[in-house]
Amino acid sequence: MDSSTCSTSAMLSPRQTKHRRSTPRASPTRGASVENDLLSTDFATANDFTNWNFNVFELETPKMQLAFVQRLSAFFELHTTFGLSMEAIGQFYVDVQQGYMERTTQPVVARRYHTFLHAVDVMQSVAVFLRGFQGTAYVSPLTASALLIASLCHDVGHVGLTNQFLVNSGHPLTLEYRSPVLESMHTARTMVLVKQHGFLTHLPTQESLRVAKTIARCIMYTDVSIHSELLRKTRAIAWRPGQLAEEDSYVYCGFLLHTADICNPAKEWSLAQHWTDLIMSEFFEQGALEKREGLVVSTFRNADQINTSEIQANFVRLMLQPTLSLMAEFLPNSAFLKDIAEGNRKQWEADSLRALTAPQVELIRALSRPLVLHHLTRREQYLEKLTRFCDNDKVIAGLFVASLYATFSDNVRIASSGVEGDVAFGICTCVVLAVMLADVILSAIVMPRYRYSFYFWLDLVAAVTLLTEVSFINGLQVDATAHAGSGSLTKTPALRLARLLRMLRMATLFKLFKQALVKHSYRPRRQSRATKAPAAVGSADSPPATFSAADLKRICSSPVYTLEHVEQLVRGAYRGVPPPTDALRNFCARIASSTSLAPMRSFKFTPVRFHKVLMAMEDAYERDMNSTNKISQLNFYASRLGEKVADTTLRHVIFLLLAVLIILTECTMPRDVSPRAYGLQKLHMWAQTGNAGLLREVAFYTNATQPVYLYLAGANATAVHNAFAPLAADPWPLADVVFDGHALYGPRVTACYRVEYLTALYFPSACEWPSTTLPCQSIAVFDGGAEARTEAVWEIVRTLFIISCFASGGMLLTLDVYKRVILPVERMVNLTQQLALNPTKSVVAEDEEKPMYEMKLLQNTLTKVARLLQIGYGSAGSAIISRNMMGADFDPIIAGKKVHAVFGFCDIRRFTDITECLQEQVMMFTNTIGHLVHHAAYTFDGHANKNVGDAFLLVWKIPEDSPDVAVINQARPPAHLATTSGAELDYLFFDKEGNDKMAQSKMYVATVADNALMAVLKTMVDIDISPKLKAYKTNKQLQARFESPFQVKMGYGLHVGWAIDGAHRWWKGTDACVGAIGSKYKIDASYLSSDVNMASTLESTTKLYHIPLIMSHSFYNLLSPMLQQFCRCIDCVLFDGSSKPTALYTCDYVNPNVRHFRGIADVPLLQMGLLNGFTSTFEKGVNEYLVGNWAVARDTLSFLLATLKPHDGPAEALMEFMGRSDFAAPADWPGYRKLA
Fold first, then answer.
1. Is 513 annotated for ligand binding?
2. What is the CATH number of domain 35-270?
3. Residue 114 is a catalytic residue
4. What is the model's pLDDT at position 242?
5. Would the annotation count 1162 as a binding residue?
6. What pLDDT, on a 0 to 100 scale, did the predictor assign at position 986?
């Protein structure tokens, strides 16, 4: 059959088959004993032949399928009925199976549905009808056997393509078989096999003839285009007990086979779903082939533009349910099939609500492809992966934490812990050091601009200087032999260096803050419609995300998204076709890449999180795919501009900050005299002179300076210690400082105190010791740990204050740069991008609260240029604008594109004479009419294409997936010359648009042709009532040349067909054009084809019939019934140079009192003034003229001219033509006349 029915459920996987019994794998051969080989397979039982929901997919191998057919044949005793042996009929089944497998014609497509398994399924369904539902009650066993043979062979040799495709593509089968091509081929091949294997040899002549006719008629009835006719004939059968009449039995058997052929949606859900996947995959194979060959994609074959679940639900409702209801009338046991089909229909309707849109399908399929880096070497791929790792938010957050630790670690260590915690802090510092060095190395690898830059040296120095804070590396935490040194707690060069190093690390922290701020401010922004404010939807700020939160909830409402939901999403994108093997793994790999996770086998996301992941994946994919798209890169370049400005600004701020910090910390006035050193000097002098007040001075010195250790050369050490110890806050024992040629800290000191904060003062600074254990110097040791902790706390506070000031200042600077520079640039980029992606869309500059004059001027200029381009090129030139704005080079000459459209051609009558009269005013006159013509076209969804002096070409494009395209491609002849009815088109209308079209007689829905006709009628009315054109009635030159008052007269022609859209370059030897009208200096964007010329020809023909409007019958066929009733056929002609006749139609406009035209509701007003009976009388006269009864036509039209409409132009033209032959039609009158 030419299967134009379909069933799909794109969201679930095909059912996994199960083995009920094992069978040998070997395939049968011609020489094998079929009886011994096939019947030995204990597979099928009698219940399988009467079980409606038998799972035929369990027959996994060709041998298992053949064995099932042999069992079914034996169950119905077909070999006995036809007088054949089991081996002979088995060999017939082998040849039938081979006929399904062979591929002898081109092109070859993957057949997944029209296979031998489908034939077995149909045969099993027919067996259920006959035996399970008692269908044999109406036919003889011989007829039932013939029906079973027809059911097995009904698609033998199927090529996986439709009849319409074979005709459109000029397939060789169309030269060999009559229409319908496939059914004729199936019938011919089946009859060859039947005769070859002796099915008719042992039957009487009458019975063999009846068997042959039953098989042939049944197969021909599988043509879906005659579905309605078959149902009508079945209803007309005279049902009575016993056998039916011969013709009725053919119809009955054909109905059963046709029902079995289309009843997959009435199987249990898993089976219906599986068959759906198979047929849709075959449909989409044909659609892909049609795209490759430049043909219009047939209905249901474009996988990117249909909702297959909705189509299937409508198919069950419109086609299958009436069929099953009719079968239930004479086979009552089949009534439950309607319930199964209804349940499946409801399931498909639910699935249709969850179906993905075309952009969502495209995105999911793209994300399911391998995650590879296009056009990159292996080294570049590794660099790209490292770049993604370095740009990951979590990695940046980790580096921020590390820099934060590096900035505050030393102060925190001093303020919060004692010397015992230094080792732990040292280990953490080593880890942070490794992290920061790794960051420097990776950044230098992946970012050449970073290498040896200011930030490179800043990061490297800041990282290396962390070594100065590791106590077990820098030597500050010493052992028991550590020397006591001298110096100031806050003024030593080492500590000043440490402070400067902390400033460098603070600058590194600022750099990371800058990176995060810039990335957040300037990375490409996407926002779903669901999260935008209502006023922002459709704005030019940013394109909406393909998936909104509402979309995810509609597709799969779940509190948690798991791998199962992702699999459902991927399968939904392939609309029933099994996804590629690695599609799910590739999609999960992209999820892992977007979330910086390792490839996962399972995961759980909240709906909000999963929505963000999808948006991130889409952003990454678009950046990858648009790398050669200059317009798409403009947003990226604008963002890079903002990043560069922010980077430069923040770098200057860092320099300024470092300078200020250095000045504030280093430019302090040191004290001239140190109380500690001066007091120690006095104590030393008193000790040397043996002054009796020494101990009292020691007490004063201790109270004033609080040393932890005091030794006075020349004085009793024990007496001095006893004098200062009670007054000191933390006196050291004498043993904590030992003398061995030098003053050394003892083990207790190095274990309990940070040596770097111990200050040892000597007086005199140099002298010769009497012995290694007796110093000649007085020594005082001070512990600065408390002051250091206080200073560390204040240092943390100061650093936090500096960071907060920098953060707020940096943010304000960055936002100001964004607001003043980047945002206006991005708005202009968005305008350019809108124009490039959709050149016919009206672009408007976005208003700003406080616009900058220069930016506003640029935006307005860009908007005006865009508008001029749109007006200059029109809809036909949209591809030129888009390609040149999105590409790198300028090339106005591009290849055209075949489109289907309604073409309207209108012309100003007597324009030459009007030009001579109006002279320089003729431009205003022409533009006034042009404005009215264009305004009417745009009001009714059309486009103005060309203005050629006094003529205008108008276009109404027809979507390529519209059923109207199929009607156009059929190229049906005029109604009186047609040999077939329009029933063959019924099967085209099972989608939502088709359903609406079928219901137009009850509820009006404007078609493209309706809009074109109403635009012409509106133009007529507007020209008649235009005040500007009425002013020309009093023009003296026009009154002198023409009638008074002067009337503007126009001619209109409407036709439908195909054309080449765009700028085209002519090639010799072609009747259509591929390339440019003009050159790089001047081009015209227009539509070229014979159908465009036909519209012009129809307009010029209006002069012959003295009417303003003529339409072709091809255009008339696309009108809705509500508008067709206001049109009349006026003639049928064969234009010079045309191979097919064209019927001419017009729509009368006779009421001059109409003041405005708004749509179809005003059409009856235009014809107020036509007398009752005019339309029917004229129709009768034309019909008699077309069939050759010219005498009757003369009398009818004469009566019309005399009584109903005296000066009817078409009637007068027909009378004049028939009068040339004395109102006698030629003997070879074909039903039309030739018109030069």
1. no
2. 1.10.1300.10
3. yes
4. 72
5. no
6. 36
CA gap 641, 134 in Å, rounded: 80
> What is the distance between the alpha carbons of residues 1191 and 36, in angstroms, rounded to a whole number?
78
pLDDT at 813 exceeding the cut of 80: no
Would you say residue 1216 has pLDDT above 90?
Answer: yes
Tens digits of residue pLDDT in 582-626: 777 778 777 776 665 555 556 677 888 788 888 877 777 665 554
Task: Show the tokens assigned to 795.
Answer: 């240092």
646: burial class by Cβ within 10 Å (0-12, 13-18, 19+)?
A: buried
Say how far apart CA 655 and CA 653 lie, in whole Å.
5
Q: Is the pLDDT of residue 810 over 50?
A: yes
Higher pLDDT, 503 or 71: 71
Q: For the chain, state the CA radius of gyration.
A: 47
Catalytic hit among 19, 79, 114, 935: 114
Does position 494 have pLDDT exceeding 60, yes or no? no
Pairing of strands 1086-1088, 1109-1112: unpaired
The residues spanned by each domain of the chain are 35-270, 838-894, 897-974+999-1064+1083-1169, 1172-1235
Encoded tokens for 101? 């497998």
1106 annotated ligand binder: no
Specify the pTM: 0.46
Name every residue whose Cβ is closer than 8 Å to that of residue 879 and which is 6 or more positions away in sequence: 839, 894, 897, 1061, 1062, 1063
Scanning 549-602, the segments in alpha helix (DSSP H) are 549-555, 563-573, 583-595
Q: Please name the residues in contact with 1133: beta carbons below 8 A apart, sequence gap of 6 or more.
A: 1101, 1141, 1142, 1144, 1232, 1233, 1234, 1235
| pLDDT for res 458 | 77
**Bigger pLDDT: 860 vs 337:** 337
Q: Which residue has the higher pLDDT, 1088 or 1227?
A: 1227
Alpha-carbon distance of 696 to 1194, in angstroms, equals 152
- Say if residue 191 is exposed, middle or buried (CB neighbours under 10 Å; 0-12, 13-18, 19+): middle
State percent of the chain over pLDDT 90: 23
| Dist. CA 2–CA 163, nearest whole Å | 6
Name which of 622, 614, 569 is nearest 595 in CA terms.
614
Q: Which helix (H) or strand (E) holds 951?
A: strand 951-958
162 marked among binding-site residues:
no
- The secondary structure of residue 764, as a DSSP letter, is S
- Tens of pLDDT, residue by residue over 342-363, are 999 888 888 777 777 767 777 7
672 labeled binding residue: no
d(CA 799, CA 804): 9
Q: Nearest 5°: phi and psi at 246?
A: -60, -50
pLDDT of residue 1006: 66
Write the CB contacts of 204 (distance below 8 Å, at least 6 apart in sequence): none
Cis, bond preceding 180 (omega within 30 deg of 0): yes
CA separation for the pair 676, 686 (Å, rounded):
16
Band (146; pLDDT cuts 50, 70, 90): very high
Is 261 annotated among the ligand-binding residues?
Answer: yes
- Is 171 annotated in some ligand binding site? no
Buried b (16+ CB within 10 A) or exposed e, 388-415: eebeeeebbeebbebbbbbbbbbbbbbb
For the chain, the 3-state helix, strand and coil shares in percent, each to the nearest 5, are: 60, 10, 35
On whether the 897-974+999-1064+1083-1169 domain is CATH 1.10.287.40, my answer is: no
In sign, the C-alpha dihedral spanning 267, 271, 277, 279 is negative
Residues 710-745 have pLDDT tens digits of 988 888 888 888 888 898 888 888 888 888 777 888
For residue 1080, is pLDDT > 60? no
Q: What DSSP character marks residue 973?
A: P
Q: Is 117 annotated as a binding residue?
A: yes
Kind of pairing, strands 778-783 and 709-711? antiparallel
Half-sphere exposure of 642 (CA within 13 A, CB side): 29
Q: Is 684 annotated as a binding residue?
A: no
